[in-house]
C-alpha cells in the first residue's frame, strides 16, 4: 500500500501519539503543523526536519512492521500539504508581512494581524487547553514553553512584528540599573532575549493596566529601559486602551507597548483614537433561549444578595452585578472568575428543570450567567470562532485573551508605519 493511501490529517489527531510527543524534548507536532502552513515561504526550513521526524514517528507508531525511511516520510509530508483540514481562520493567500505570536493564548493577536493581511510564522503557548482551541481555529499546534532553549530554536528569522501578551513579574533591580540582566528569571526576559536575537522591525506588547504601578512602577521602568537602551527600539509612552472604545461593550483596560527598531528611523507613533461605534450588552447577547444550566439557583441568588449586603454595611462595593441590556459589561477577568459581576436578565427560559446539580430551584427572576459565546463576543471574537473545550476552560480562555478590536486598531497603526519605510 502506498504511504499516501494510508495517511490523512485525521491520523495526526491520535491522542496516545500526542501524549508521547508531549514527553519529547522536540515539539514535532508543532513543527509539523507550522511546516504545513509555511511550505510556500522560506520559513519552512526552520520546521522541516522535525516535521519529517513527526511523520516518521507517526508511521513507526501506526505501522511498526514497515520501518519507513526519512525519504519516504518526506514524500508523505509533501502529500499532506495538499490534504490540510479546512479551518475557520486560514492565513491570507497573499500576506503583506510576517509576525510571531508569543504567549498566544487562543489567538487574539493572530486574529487581529491576519485581518490586516499578516502571516503568522511562529506561535508559542504552554496551556494544553488553549492549544486545542488554537489548533481548531488556526490549524496549528503552538510550540510549548518559550522559556526553553529548544522552543526558542524553532523561531525563524526575518519576521516583521513580535507580538506578546506576557504576564508581568517583579524584577530584581535593587541596587542595579534595571537593565536586561535584571529581568532574568521572568517571562519578559525571554521576550527580550528573542527581540535581541531576531531584531524584528516592530514589537507589540500587551499587559494588565496594573503594570504601570507594579512593584511601585519599577517593573515598567525596567521594561522600557531594556527596550529603549539595551535593545535599541524607539518606544513611545505606553498607553492604556479600553476595549469599550473599540466596538465591544466591555470595560476592559489594558496597557499597550509599541516599539520600532531605531535604525528604521521611525521617531513618532500615534495610538489609535477611540471609534465612534456605540455598542451595548444587547448587541452581543444570545437571541435564542440558552440552556437552563446558565441560570442561577434561588439559593445562590440569595447567597449573592446577602454577601453584597454584608459588604455594603461595611462601606465596601464588592458583590454581584446584573448588567442592564443597554449597559457595558465589567471586564471578563483572568482565570474566568467573577462571572457574577456580569450577570444578565433573560426571560426567554420556559423549562426550569435543572440539568446540573444545584441547591434549590432555578430562579424565576431571569438571572443568568453570560455564556462562553457571549464572553467571546465581548472580546471581539467572531461567531465562527470554534469553542472546543469545556465551559470552565472557555471562560478561562476568553478571560485571559486580548480584546481583538483594540489590538487590531493598534496593529493597523503599526503596519501603516512599517509600510512607509
Automatic annotation (TrEMBL):
Keywords annotated in UniProt: Methyltransferase, Restriction system, S-adenosyl-L-methionine, Transferase
Active site (catalytic residues): 168
Pfam families: DNA_methylase
Database matches in InterPro entries: C5-MTase, C5_DNA_meth_AS, C5_MeTfrase, SAM-dependent_MTases_sf
Entry-linked CDD domains: Cyt_C5_DNA_methylase
Domain of life, per lineage: Bacteria
EC number: 2.1.1.37
Catalytic activity reported: a 2'-deoxycytidine in DNA + S-adenosyl-L-methionine = a 5-methyl-2'-deoxycytidine in DNA + S-adenosyl-L-homocysteine + H(+)
A GO molecular function held by the record: DNA (cytosine-5-)-methyltransferase activity
GO BP annotations, alphabetical order: DNA restriction-modification system; methylation
TM stretches of this protein: none
Top EC category: transferase
Family: Belongs to the class I-like SAM-binding methyltransferase superfamily. C5-methyltransferase family.
Listed name of the protein: Cytosine-specific methyltransferase
Organism this protein belongs to: Mesonia algae
